[in-house]
Amino acid sequence: MSEARQRRAFALLGSTGSVGVSTLALVERFPERFRAVALAAGRNTAALAEQIRRHDPELVSVADEASARDLRARVPEFTGRILAGSEGPLAVATHPEAELVLSALVGALGLVPTLAAVRAGKHVALANKEVLVVAGELVTRAARECGVDLLPVDSEHNAIFQALRGQARDEVKRIVLTASGGPFLARSAAELATVTVAEALNHPTWKMGPKITIDSSTLMNKGLEVIEARWLFDVDADRIDVVIHPQSIVHSMVEYVDGSVLAQMAVPDMTIPIGYALAYPSRLPLDHLRPLDLPAAGTLTFVAPDRQRFPCLDLAYRALRAGGTMPAVLNAANEIAVERFLAEDLAYRDIPTLVAAVMDAHAPAPASDLDVLLAADAWARDAARSGSGRAERAAAR
Ligand SMILES: NC(=O)c1ccc[n+]([C@@H]2O[C@H](COP(=O)([O-])OP(=O)(O)OC[C@H]3O[C@@H](n4cnc5c(N)ncnc54)[C@H](OP(=O)(O)O)[C@@H]3O)[C@@H](O)[C@H]2O)c1
Fold first, then answer.
1. What are the pLDDT digits (tens) for 273-289?
2. What is the Å distance from ligand 1's center to 215 Cα?
């Protein structure tokens, strides 16, 4: 077989985002191992044009026609296809040559293309956690039926995936997700009331896209990860715990029935879980990364999360236990609350209040199919756009 044919061909949803850029940087280090055949981006045509020049994909997609026109002007020499609109990510996710799809769009908009990838028989490296929050049962069932792997890219789930490898699933007692705690770990409830957008975007250990950075600061990110873990590892809510570990060195742990706890540790760098998922079942020699130096790292600390100051965590547990369409409603309400906070249309402390109010107004239905979930998502977005958060909090007093 020629070298070109031995390379793993993959499609990348969200190529211009934080995970997407890290993925393509890794591919550039291992050009003999991987080939990006299709890229889906949003509106960052400057970054996508540069990716086209460096990776020469066969197909790219952008969010709308204006972005497509702009992209064509930037890369007149490109002979591949440029698609615009919602059909684009679908075509990227089902590109015939891709053996694997790295799903790194942000939010529920990644659900339909990711499900299409699974149904087209592609293995999925999953960064876009909202996919499993909205439709965990549907997507994991489809993956089982189609015989494809769901390979976690989220560093916590990737750590658990590694700690489960070669172990008997019926000997797992508990999963422990670690959380950095975000920038406001030491802030009082009163201080949280005055948080600004710039402060919330300043994560202490990870450099990520804006939505996940805000979610990390409210602990909603950890709540979404609890739901993601439930579906990826088939473990119910009562056996998933969260512990705050500000150094972000222990990426998560699995406790077994004999009391043994297996943890995965590494420097906080998304290259490691991305590389693990892309190269699975082998490991890549990532010699360019700074090695983990435990004496230099100093003390590793672990504390229980403060569920009063960070109510988003319990909102996610509540949604998971309610089941059906409730996790989709939690997610959609949170996406809108974060969008409004970033637009300075909602106070930071009103993010959980608004999400709770939308959940209170929802009677969950069975998550029987995609249409039911998408309708719940659309309903919750409307409710969160019109809710103030403040009024609901006052009414609740
Ligand atoms: N960042 C991390 O370290 C990290 C770690 C673990 C898990 N995750 C998860 O991975 C996912 C991606 O996170 P991220 O931090 O990489 O997000 P991000 O930096 O915000 O990137 C989001 C990507 O989605 C694209 N996009 C946004 N709206 C779109 C639209 N309407 N149509 C098509 N494409 C659109 C963006 O395109 P443009 O920029 O071109 O508009 C960009 O490529 C999230 O679910 C997050 O929770 C991220």
1. 999 999 999 999 999 99
2. 13
**78 and 143, same structural domain?**
yes
| 238 and 264 fall within a common domain | yes
What does the pLDDT look like over 207-262, one tens digit per residue? 899 999 999 999 999 999 999 999 999 999 999 999 999 999 999 999 999 999 99
Domains contained in the chain, number: 3
Q: Considering the domain boundaries, does residue 291 fall inside one? A: yes
Its sign, for the CA torsion 280, 282, 288, 293, is positive
> Atom 11, ligand 1: which residue's CA is nearest?
128
Compute, in angstroms, the gap from residue 3 CA to the centroid of ligand 1.
31
Read off the CATH number of the domain in which 356 is found: 1.10.1740.10
Pocket of ligand 1 (CB under 6 A): 14-20, 41-44, 63, 104-106, 109, 127-130, 154, 206, 208-209, 211-212, 270
Q: Which residues contact 312 (CB under 8 A, 6 or more apart)?
A: 215, 218, 219, 220, 223, 334, 351, 352, 355
16 alpha carbon – ligand 1 mean position (Å) = 8
Query: Checking phi first, is residue 38 left (phi over 0); if not, alpha (psi -120 to 50) or beta?
Result: beta
Domain of 263 in residue numbering reads as 156-268+276-308
Nearest Cα residue to atom 33 of ligand 1: 42
Q: Using the mean position of ligand 1's atoms as its centre, give its distance from the Cα of residue 116 in Å.
A: 18
More confident of the two residues 392 and 154: 154
